Each structure stands twice: as structure tokens, then as C-alpha cells.
Amino acid sequence: MKTTRLEAFSDGVIAIIITIMVLELKVPHATEFADLKPLLPVFLAYVLSFIYVGIYWNNHHHMLHCTKHVTGGILWANLHLLFWLSLFPFTTGWMGENHLASTPTAVYGYVLLMAALAYYILQRAIITQQGRDSLLAAAIGYDWKGKLSPVLYLLAIPLAFVSPWISNSLYIFVALLWLIPDRRIERALVTQDKV
Amino acid sequence: MKTTRLEAFSDGVIAIIITIMVLELKVPHATEFADLKPLLPVFLAYVLSFIYVGIYWNNHHHMLHCTKHVTGGILWANLHLLFWLSLFPFTTGWMGENHLASTPTAVYGYVLLMAALAYYILQRAIITQQGRDSLLAAAIGYDWKGKLSPVLYLLAIPLAFVSPWISNSLYIFVALLWLIPDRRIERALVTQDKV
Amino acid sequence: MKTTRLEAFSDGVIAIIITIMVLELKVPHATEFADLKPLLPVFLAYVLSFIYVGIYWNNHHHMLHCTKHVTGGILWANLHLLFWLSLFPFTTGWMGENHLASTPTAVYGYVLLMAALAYYILQRAIITQQGRDSLLAAAIGYDWKGKLSPVLYLLAIPLAFVSPWISNSLYIFVALLWLIPDRRIERALVTQDKV
Amino acid sequence: MKTTRLEAFSDGVIAIIITIMVLELKVPHATEFADLKPLLPVFLAYVLSFIYVGIYWNNHHHMLHCTKHVTGGILWANLHLLFWLSLFPFTTGWMGENHLASTPTAVYGYVLLMAALAYYILQRAIITQQGRDSLLAAAIGYDWKGKLSPVLYLLAIPLAFVSPWISNSLYIFVALLWLIPDRRIERALVTQDKV
Description:
The structure is a homotetramer of 195-residue chains.
Chain A: H1 3-20, H2 40-65, H3 72-86, H4 88-97, H5 102-130, H6 135-140, H7 144-159, H8 164-179, H9 183-194
Helix pairs in contact in A: 1-2, 1-3, 2-4, 2-8, 3-5, 4-5, 5-7, 5-8, 7-8
């Protein structure tokens, strides 16, 4: 199988996921600004998930760019990632509609965690197939973001029962971590690793 | 018509099918873990159907990879397959929401059966067009999986009225059959056929 | 603009239209075979619309295959066609849910008619741009199917108030006309035209 | 990242947005022509939004056509545009279902404004990356349409509380501005700028 078709299919699924999330923003029956207010947490959850799906799409693309040959293992590791991403509309809707209540916030983090693990498994599958000297292995390097993110999700899940605001702050922090291409931090950490 | 456009269109439809199935996972209005419990059968049915659609996408790709020229017959055989796949969200939702009751489980199996037959018809249409010495005919070989699957679905449909658990075990078994690339079994069976 | 991107976008829209139509098949809350019975007209309407969208996708592909250059006019003629196709899920759902009542059946025919006209306009726009000696003009020939179909829709719309069965028979007849590649009829009619 | 994948992903998202908007056209339960009447404003809002999304798709394509290299900044500017476009189904549904009431009409205009700004930011990001002598900078020229549209939206938002009809007339006017390729006006305005 060529990488291009795996890419095209994944793009299709991710494009649909990112778009059907907006269906959780149910059109209110009344017509005042005040009627939008109960939608605010759904909207904010949508923004957060939109950014997460955008990050996954972006990283997924770069990863497949370094992949020449697709094996059955890579294909199913990819579908496994798409599976967890496909649950984003559900957890986003549940967290948003319940004004960021504890359990939905924890479940939201759990799906983020599983998506991160699925991404890691896919990365491993590609590196295994391509060899440790491959382009992908070199491009990823120490992958401190990939290692820190699941740890922060693991922290955020129980903390949702202390305060969902802590968990959501952690989710936002991880998103910013991936969003902002802070090369200084990256280089510093890489250097630190080397020391 | 070039195979690439048939592939691209099929990929699009399959990507949408695999994603809208998740819309059957309706966001609960309450916020406890217990409120997720009634969703468990819907979730499990979703997992099963996700795997099935993944298998179809995978096999479909390999089949079209061996196809050079697309005739009107192949095109409609392909749309016929997509038609039955498009019913997966409906049967998945019906079986899941009713906690795997007998009739929905039987209907789920019926749609699996029709999709398998549609796949078989598409395979025949391609081999007819390409000749019995074609790459596809060689790649498929005796096609014991393709022959065993409909038989197991046919068994599972009436057995749903004995116990839906038997039927669902059969559906899971068929999925694993396609999922696990057990070459030993495959080779053994092929050898057995030759003897 | 290259034809490929117009094709890809149209394919995407058509793939979504053909798939979201199935969302009108609402999952019943009860679990007997009898509970599927009220869904039968929705299902049949879905089958009919699925075939129609399949025909449009097929013909659309052949038409664009003969198109080299996309102008602004062609682009908007194409979006105009996609607009009417996008109303298929609505009219299919309305006709199906109301057991093929008169008005929904007439409206279903009206949208079929408008899609046929939009297709004709797109064809004209391409031929105008490519010249009357173009490949598309030659491929279409006298285009008796393209001319007969709107006439039959125009007949079917008022007849829906006599009996929706007549209209639906006409819709099915037109679908079969495009589905069955009866070259004898085609050639005969072409010859007749020449005489 | 190659431009083609950004294009393909954007096309996918835009194709889904343009199609799920039609889901706001809820199938009526009764079967008379009169039952379609309450849907008329939803339908008209759908037509308007369909045209807007079509314009964005068209312009987006031309813009990316002039783009060789995709940076992280361009990628996120593009996702930012897709985000605002993804809110079109919500605002279209809200405005349509409430018969073009003041607040929904103003919010509809606000999302149009944000999409226009997002488009402008994306354009800036591409020109910055490609240089002020780039093909895109030359193709856009003075970009009077791109500058006039946000001004008209800004006018339309408060005017919705005077009369939603004024705002909607402005939205239609902007759409026509982009739809009709009136080169005379364009050239005249460009000349005027030069004087």
C-alpha cells in the first residue's frame, strides 16, 4: 500500500471528525444573546478539540511524510489512532454540555491520553519498520513533547475530581506546547538531554 | 474511468461511514460514570463495526490495487458494496441501543452478509474483466476467508434468536480472522486444498 | 483551476450527500422485525436516491474527463449542480417518512428536475468553453437520455397528485434508463434521429 | 508540507461544511406545501451560506495555487479560517430557524466578518512567506473586495438591530460582489487608486 492512500483516508476521517464536532453546538430556539450563553462551554470545548485535531493532523502528516512503505501493522496502528480521534466529538460534547463537570472532563482527558498512546504506537510501528536510523527516528529525536503529554493527561484525569479547571488548564497547556513552535525550549531540552 | 477516482470516491464514502457511526453514541445529559454504562453496548457495537469497516477499507484497497481498468459493471458493483456498508451505522446503532437484542443482532448479521456478497460480486466483476490469469485472481487464491465469512454470518443470523451472544461471538471471530494475518493457518489451508 | 481539484471537491460533496441520506433511516426504539416496517418507505426512497446520486457521480466523472480547462462559469455551474444534489437527503427523507405522500413525491421530482437542469447547464457551459467540435460534444451526441429525463420528471410532478405510485414508477424508470447500458435502444434512437 | 495536502484537507473540510448545513433543513412531519413554508427562511439562509462557502472554496483554491511552500504559520492560519467556516452551519441554522431575527442575523454577520479576517490573515501569512513581489501579491493587487467586505459586515452587524433585512441585503450584496466577475468595476477602482 502506498502512503498516499493512507494519508488521503486519514485526512478524510480527520476532516469529518473536526467538522462533525460542530454539530454538538445545537442551534438555540430563542433569539437573544443570552441564549448563546449556555453554549459558551460547548463552544470553548469545541475550540480546544479543534486545536487538538489540528495538531494531530499536522503531526500525522509530518510522520507519514517520513514513511515510505505501509505494512499491515502500520495500517492498523493508524486506524487505532483514528478510532480514538473519532471519540473526540463525543467527549467534547459531553464535557461542553455539562459545563466542564468532573467526570466528563476526566473522560475527555482519558480519550486524549488514549489518542496520544495510539499516536506513540503508530510512531513505534513506523520506526520499527524503517529502522532506528530512519528519517523519522532522527526527526523525532528525544520526543520530549510526546513523552510529557501523556504524563500531563495522566495527572489531569484524577485532578478533574479536585477541580475540572485544573484539568482543562493542563489540556490547554499541552495544546499550547504543541502549537507554539518554541525552538529555544526545544533546543535547550535537547541539549540538556545530551549533557 | 481511472481506478484512482473510484478509489478516492470509495475512500471518501468509507471515511464518512466510519465517522458518522460515532454519532449513534449520543451524549448523555447526566455527568456520572454510571451515565456512560447504558452506552457500553453502543460503544462495543461501534468498536466492532469500526473494525469491520477498517477491514473492508483495507481489502478494498488491495483489490483495487490489482485493477487496471474500471468498467461500468465494476463501478456499479462497487457502489453496491458501498450501499451495504452505508447501512452499518444504522444496524450498529440499532443493535447497540437495544443491548444486543435478538432481531437487531440478526439484522446486523444480515447487512454483514450482504456486504460480504457485494464484495464477492465486485471481486468477480474485476476478475471477469481482467481474466482468470490476472494478478487479482492469483492474489486471492482459494479465498477461504472470503468463502467462510458468509457461511458464518448465515449461521449467526438464526442463532441470534437462540442467543445474541453466540451471533456476536461469530461476528467477532470473523473480524479477528481478517484482522490477524495468521500466515500459518492460511498456508496450511491452502496446502490442504492442494492435497 | 485544474479539473482535478474540481473533481476532488465534487467527489467529496457527493460522497457526503450519498452517506448522510442514510441518517434519515432513524434507529427504531423497539426491537422487533415489525418495528422496521414503518422504515420500509424511507429505505426504498434511500435506495432510489442512492442510485440517482451514483448515476450523477458516474456521469459527472465522464463529463469532467472530457474537460481540460475550468472557467469561473463552469465552476459555478458545478456548484449549482451540487446545490440541488445536496437537497436529495431532505426530499428523500420527506418522501420516505410520509410513505410516499403526494406533495413530498412531487417535491422529490422537482429537485430531480432541477438537478437535471443544473447538469444540462454545466454540460452547456463546458461545451461552450471547449467548442462544438469538442470531445464532450461528440461523446454526448444527441443526448436523448438527457432530454427525455426532464420531460418525464415534468410529467411525474403533477401526476403525484393523481397517484404517487405513477410518479415513483417514472423516477424508477428514469433511473433504470441511465443504469442499464442498453446500446441497442441507444443506437436505434440515434439512427432514427439521423433519418 | 506540500500545498497539495493542505488543499486536499481544506477541500474535505469545506465539502463537509457545505453539506452538513443542509441538515438544518429538518424534514417536516406533515405533507402539505404549507408545511414547507416555515422552512423557507432556513432554505434561503442555506442558499446564501452555500454561495459564501462556494466563494471561499473558489478563492482559497486560487490563493493556494500561488503558494509553493507551506510553513507552520500558514498551516495554522488555514485551520483558523476553517474554524470560522465551520461555524457557518450553526449561524445559518440559527438565523434561518428564527426567521432572520435581529441577534442571529448579527451573529451570522460576525462569523462572516471573522472568516473574512481569517482569510486576510492567511493571505498575509502567505505573502510574508513568499515575498511582496510574489505571484499572490501581484494577483491580489489592491484587493478592494477583500477590504470592502469586512467594512460592510461591520456595518451590517449593528444594523441587524434596526432591521435584519438591511443586514441580509448587505450580506447578499457582498456575495454578489464576489460572485459576479465584473472586470469593469474592478479595473475602474484599480485605476482610481492609482490616480
